[in-house]
Every structure is written in structure tokens, then in C-alpha cells.
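agent> fetching stored inputs for the 4-oxobutanoic acid docking request
agent> found them:
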Amino acid sequence: MVSGLPFQMDNADVFKDLAYVNSQWKEAKSSKRFDVVDPGSGKVWASCPDMDASDVDEAVKAAHASFLTYRKVNPRVRAQRLLKWDQLIREHRDDIAKIVTYETGKPIAESQGEIDYALGFTWWFAGEAERIQGAIQTPAAPGRRVFTVKQPVGVAVALVPWNFPIAMILRKAGAALAAGCTMVVKPSPESPLSVLTLALLAERAGFSNGEFSVMTTSLANTPGLSEALCRHPNVRKVTFTGSTRVGKLVAKLCSDGLKKVTLELGGNCPFLIFDDADLNQAADALMLLKWRHAGQACITANRVYVQSGVYDKFADIIREKTSKLKVGHGADSGTTMGPVTTPNGLTKASAQVADAKSKGGQVILGGNRVNGTEGFFFEPTIITDAKPGMLISEEETFAPVMALFKFDNEEEAVKRANDTSMGLASYFFTKNVDRTWRLLENLEAGMIGMNTGNSSAAESPFGGIKESGYGKESGKDVAVAEYMITKTGTLTLDGHY
Ligand SMILES: O=CCCC(=O)O
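agent> prediction call returned; pasting C-alpha cells
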């Protein structure tokens, strides 16, 4: 056991609590460190270097020097390194999962599930590396050929959230490293340690000399360090997953240097259940989607719309299933729902419940913080009679609170589902084929789940529209393209000019 860790590891040598810059394990220039808190107990269990803007230049310059050679590394070698990384993460899956649980609070089975999901990305992008292709064309002008080549854009920066620390990194880094970019990652202050283990395994897989760096930082230094990364002239690409508010700031900072940007932002996703749906199928899907990581996924169901003919029945089914959840520390066996990751999550959940009650909502399950613990626990909560105008219909909850809204017909359901500035994912359950097609076309979201609440996968383009951001992560061609430029070559032949 690494001294002082609250859990046992099979291979404690993969635990790192230093930043990783230019392939060196480092403290911050300031020598300051910040605490990492276990959301299940509210206790500090580790610390990390508190880097700030003054640490950025060295990291980016190293990543840039490294880019000048890495961009020429043969795609097969890039693929082989990604596969080696994939294999090492697989070998250390259970140790990484324990770290994720102590950082985020999620139950250990969910942490393991996140790693299994994330490994889809390393595997997928290893395959993509060798399939990056340009094109050739015969244009109208005589004796002329036009071709395009794809080249890596340069140093990429990843600003990543705490809710899926492994999946979000591997989805971004897999694409960047396959494309031939080097990457500097700034993990969230809540979840730096699992990312440092990924860096160690990347090093063992052969990524060296600043090809993959991790700069850890506290909440206080996050804005300054992130701004310095976004403004650094050697950074050519920034990928951010997080709130719409911060995404807009990132886009503004990057616009000065005209950097390529990918933004995966807030969700406030609707989940529609029609009278003709298989209610058990819809309820099982909703259980997985909504309570996954205590409601803290960008694609979670935030507004559940149920058609009036099945509203009461569905409310009973979902209440019955939800009441069987076992809330507890993520590392305890039997826990099926952990705490929220930050105390802010508790504040927001309490405020949304109070607001819904004051506007006529009925709390049919839960509704409160779990007492008698220092951990950040909130009861799985279901509110019926939810209405437009309640906070919960307007802002993402990011906590285990589910609101059930009633609707009468398809037109109304679509109108209300689309009545948001966001457009990440939408879900619907119906057995009507005509309606299925209409909803696919009419719902305003980048991803549509049709009789499923789980459409995230390495082979599917992931990304939103409207204020949920732009750009795609994962999926064939599109994700790697986010890290590439297209260069056009024009060649004249046989004396033409
Ligand atoms: O929270 C956002 C990401 C969730 C996912 O990749 O399914």
C-alpha cells in the first residue's frame, strides 16, 4: 500500500502524485501543492503539484519541440504505441478504477465500466492512425492535378472535467496522438491522480519527450493556467469538455490566436416516453442513464417527458426501481450510487428541489441530503408534476434529481424538448416507426438515442449542437480530423502552367 492511501493497490508503483511535463515527473515551480478530496468521506486523501500560468511555457515548448519529430513518426508506430497504452491500461484497470472512485465518488463497478468504455477509444484510434488519407482530383484546368494531404495541426491542449476523467482523456488523447499531435492535458483539480497514472502508462508505452504531458492545478489556479495554455502561440488546438459558460470563455481566448477548438458542453437533455413505448425498457434505460455517476454526466436525462396516458404508471415503475438503489461510499461493496463529486452539487440539487416544490412539484422519492455523513451524498430524488419555469427545466442538474413532465402529443413534446439553448443529446421511447424517423429529424441535438439511453461509443461521433458546443469526438474520420489540417497541393504537368 502506498503510504497514506486509503485503499490497497495491486501495483502501487502506478500511483503518481507529481505532474508530468516534458517526460519528467515534477513539482510546480512555486513548489505549492493542492489537496484532493474523497467525495465519499469529505476527507483529503492525496495532493498534487499546484501549477500555474508560470509553468505553462516550459510544458508547451517541450510539447512543440516534440511535435516536430512526433509528426513524422510513422502512423503504424503511432498505432502500435496506442495499442501498447491500451494494453497497459487494461492490465492496471482495477487499480485505476480505485483511484477514480476516490476522486469522483462513483461506485467501483462504474469506475471499472468507465475504463472499459474508455479503452474503446485507445483501441479505435489505434486503428484510425493508419487510415488517415488525403485525396487526389483532376480539375477542369488542363494538365493539372489537385491533391490534399492531411497533417497534424500541432500541439493540442485538453481541458478535461472530473466526471469521466479516464474516458474524456482517452477520447481526446487517442485522436490527437493518432493524428500525430502532441498533447498537454490539464485535468480537473478533483481528478488529477488517475490522469497521472495514464501518463505513467503512456510513458511505458513509448510516448516520450513531451509527447503527452499532464499539468495539475488547483481550482484557484485553473483559470490562469488554462488561459495561458489557450493563448500560447505554440498551441494550435484546444479541446474542452465542461460547462457552456466556461466553453464560451475558452472559445473567446482561442479566437485571438485563431486556434482550432472542440467544445463538448452542457446538456439539459430531454428523455421522451410515448404512450406506445415499452415502459420497462424505457425505465431500465433511464435508470442507467440518470443515476450513472449520481446524475453527473453531460448526456444524462435532465428533463423526462412522459405522455399523459402512461404518466402515472411510469412514475410508479421508476420510483419502485429507484428506491432499490443503495447509496454509499463508492468503494463499499453493494453501493449502486455514490456521492456527488463536489459540495456545489449538493447546493444545486437542494436549490432545484426547493424551487420545484415551491412551484407545485411533488417529491415522490428522496429530496434531501443524506445526513450523518461528511460525504457529499444526496438522496436519489424523483419529482412529479414538473413544469416549465422550474429551475430544473431550465438548467442542468448534475445531481441525482429526476423531474417528470407530462405531455399530451408529439408536437408538444418536441417543442418542449427543443425549448432550450442546449442541444447535446435527446432520447425517446416509442414503437412507432414513422414517429421514430420524425423525431430523429425534429429533435435539436447532436446525438439521438432511439429506444436507448446509451449511445456513447468509440465508433459513434460524439458532440452537440447549439450551446452544447461544436466539433466531434470519436467516430470514423471526424474525430481525428479535429486534430488535422488539410493542405492542398496543385501540380501542373507537361508544360502547362
Ligand atoms: O459527461 C460526458 C461524457 C459522457 C459520455 O461519454 O458518455
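agent> quick read of the result: The first strand starts at residue 19 and ends at 21.
agent> awaiting further instructions
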